[in-house]
UniProtKB/TrEMBL annotation:
<protein>
    <recommendedName>
        <fullName>Citrate synthase</fullName>
    </recommendedName>
</protein>
<dbReference type="GO" id="GO:0006099">
    <property type="term" value="P:tricarboxylic acid cycle"/>
</dbReference>
<feature type="active site">
    <location>
        <position position="330"/>
    </location>
</feature>
<dbReference type="InterPro" id="IPR010953">
    <property type="entry name" value="Citrate_synthase_typ-I"/>
</dbReference>
<dbReference type="InterPro" id="IPR016143">
    <property type="entry name" value="Citrate_synth-like_sm_a-sub"/>
</dbReference>
<dbReference type="Pfam" id="PF00285">
    <property type="entry name" value="Citrate_synt"/>
</dbReference>
<dbReference type="GO" id="GO:0036440">
    <property type="term" value="F:citrate synthase activity"/>
</dbReference>
<dbReference type="InterPro" id="IPR024176">
    <property type="entry name" value="Citrate_synthase_bac-typ"/>
</dbReference>
<dbReference type="GO" id="GO:0005737">
    <property type="term" value="C:cytoplasm"/>
</dbReference>
<dbReference type="InterPro" id="IPR019810">
    <property type="entry name" value="Citrate_synthase_AS"/>
</dbReference>
<feature type="active site">
    <location>
        <position position="386"/>
    </location>
</feature>
<dbReference type="InterPro" id="IPR036969">
    <property type="entry name" value="Citrate_synthase_sf"/>
</dbReference>
<comment type="similarity">
    <text>Belongs to the citrate synthase family.</text>
</comment>
<keyword id="KW-0808">Transferase</keyword>
<feature type="region of interest" description="Disordered">
    <location>
        <begin position="1"/>
        <end position="25"/>
    </location>
</feature>
<dbReference type="InterPro" id="IPR016142">
    <property type="entry name" value="Citrate_synth-like_lrg_a-sub"/>
</dbReference>
<comment type="pathway">
    <text>Carbohydrate metabolism; tricarboxylic acid cycle; isocitrate from oxaloacetate: step 1/2.</text>
</comment>
Amino acid sequence: MSQTETATTPSNDATQGGRNALEVRDGRTGKSYDIQILEPGTEGDTAVRGADLRQMKVNPGDFGLLSYDPAFMNTASCKSAITYIDGDNGILRYRGYPIEQLAEGATFLEVAYLLRNGELPSQGEYEQWVHDITYHTYVHENIKRFLEGFRYDAHPMSMLCSAVAAMSSFYPKAKNIFDPAERSISIIRLLAKMPTLAAMIYRHVKGLPFVYPDNDLNYVENFLSMVARMSEPKYEANPVFTKALDVLFILHADHEQNCSTSAVRAVGSSHVDPFSAVAAGIAALYGPLHGGANEQVLRMIEEIEHPKNVPAFIDEVKSGKGGRLMGFGHRVYKSYDPRARIVKKLADEVFQQVGMDKDLEIALKLEEAALSDDYFVSRKLYPNVDFYTGLIYRSMAFPTDFFTVLFAVARTAGWLAQWEEMLLDKEQKIARPRQIYIGPAERQYQSTLADKAPRTRKDSIRR
Ligand code: ACO
């Protein structure tokens, strides 16, 4: 350890030295600084302010020291009271309530209320919340025509992202984000219309007529009705599917500062309307390293084809030639993802109803092989929430490229709670990271072109 590092190593116990500060000595100048350690969070997380490093300069004209943290590996971008994750111990709580208890006893709309408001609803509050969401499920007829413009094989996430962005144009008053009433109605509209849009997209891909919402049904039943109803006068959802989807929505409702939530917060920090901010979240969720992983898990399992091919597939992943084991690993969880445990149990219940999924054995073999292999164990790679969800969705007859849409419907609850928390947080400003510039130093322009005359298309063809 260098002398500088020794000099900057603080006491582990902030109170031991009597001061809640880091003593930092800048080896370039020999100057020492006190960097204040912020009040710990509820679970003891401590941090220093990145901006406090700026006082460390080699001369008065120096910009000051930056912290460099690609991919935000060790940077808290906000203080949040919504979701708590302890990645080492596999703990997930919404507003303090363990995810296992919410999955067991709550409904998705109850959880959406909790995420937004911080407390569970009273009976009256719950009834009002459910009523408001139920009566905003219809979308403008133009949205229908807008969706009809997509090709039959358009990816459902592209359609969802565009449809939610387009909704911003239907609600111009949603721009009044500092008006609590406008915020509330936007939140209700987004939660209410997301299943309608998702179901319309499903029907568009299938070439089926759109089904209008049925306000007599609950949130999940209504969604299933808009997805699956044919000529029957009243749709009756399979109760096992309804329960399973409600639990899956709860598990996906929020996950603190993940990629898509950070996108919603960053885009929302420019004070754009929430429809546009949520569209940004949907775009981020689409990626295969994030919400798109559930689709990729199933494609991977289908490619493996048979349990006997699992060892060869694992070897390929380990060699770096075969891509990643999708549905495994997580930036925060370094032990079993608690959601994956619940999903695995849920899969058993659904398969009891519809029969065993033909590829479950491949998934189980993959999990078993990975959990006993040093490559995965030493990197703390465990199944994440997406590992088994695809098999459940497939057993409900959802097409593979629709899986991430289901995730987006649920995550809308978390995105909106986080968006509003960000807006009301006095410490937040427009998100604007710094960079360390590594391009060329100043140089003089000299043209590298012999002929700069603008050309017509005809000219360029002739040449
Ligand atoms: N399969 C094989 N190796 C993996 C995997 C995986 N799924 N995930 C990580 N690794 C390896 C990396 O190659 C790396 O190895 P190395 O140290 O030898 O270079 C090491 O584990 C650390 O990986 P990182 O990429 O640095 O971990 P990071 O925290 O950046 O990535 C992520 C997390 C993106 C989730 C990653 O584990 C991954 O790509 N998993 C597969 C995709 C997936 O399932 N995503 C869904 C996540 S959950 C969600 O978003 C809802």
